[in-house]
Amino acid sequence: MAPRYHPLDVCEPMLRASGEALLARYPWLEVHALVADYERHLAALPDGKRRLVVFLGSTIGNFSPKRAAAFLDAIAARLRPGEFFLLGADLVKHAAVLEAAYDDRAGITAEFNRNVLRVINRELGADFNLSAFEHVAFFDPRKRQIEMHLRARRPQRVTLAGLGMTVPFAAGETLHTEISRKFTRRGLEGLCRRAGFAPERWFALDAPAFGLLLCRRV
Q: Where are the domains of the chain?
């Protein structure tokens, strides 16, 4: 039986494009894409022999501790003993390095952050003035996470017509838009063990920036 790859994502055009690119490079591979939300539709994961679930990027860092634990529990529930899980995570670094990455001089992350308001305006009929909010990013060493906020430059009131509500903002008040948690190897292994996985192998650079943890379902 040929190896099968089941990418899962909410974006169908991306799945089609990446699937076709993989087939062009690896014609022996079977690709069966699933248009789904990985938090809500894990039951769509197909059955098979010797399965490996891969969760790369650093998306696990965008979950709160409770939500991350629940997500790993759900993955473990879909796997049989002896099957594998590969988890990627961004690692703890010096605060200055992290803050420079999330508040870059080119303003790319700031624009990405303000795009949240653009989407709310479009989807909820809101009237956020994007220029009235400034991007703020900082590392909280106690929680080991980057926090991104949008800070009001002046007092203002924002109407969200789709929700029938108006929200006041004081000057300097922030809207918390994202977290990005950072991990140590020990912390990541503990998180996986509590979900029912046994860490098998660790992959990381000599100067750690990103880590991969291969686990086996017990």
A: 4-93+182-217, 95-179
- What does the alpha-carbon distance between residue 47 and residue 34 come to, in Å, rounded to a whole number? 13
pTM: 0.90
Distance CA 213, CA 204 (A): 9
Q: For residue 91, how many other CB atoms are within 10 A of its CB?
A: 19
CB 151 within 8 A of CB 174: yes
Q: Which CATH architecture has domain 4-93+182-217?
A: 3-Layer(aba) Sandwich (3.40)
pLDDT in tens, 192-212: 999 999 999 999 977 779 999
> Could you tell me where the beta strands, DSSP code E, fall in the chain?
4-5, 8-9, 30-31, 34-35, 52-55, 84-90, 133-140, 145-152, 156-160, 165-169, 174-181, 197-204, 210-217
CA distances from 48 to 4, 6, 45, 108 (A): 9, 11, 9, 42
Helix or strand holding residue 59 (H, E): none
Q: How far apart are CA 28 and CA 210, in angstroms?
A: 30
In angstroms, the CA 87 to CA 84 distance is 10
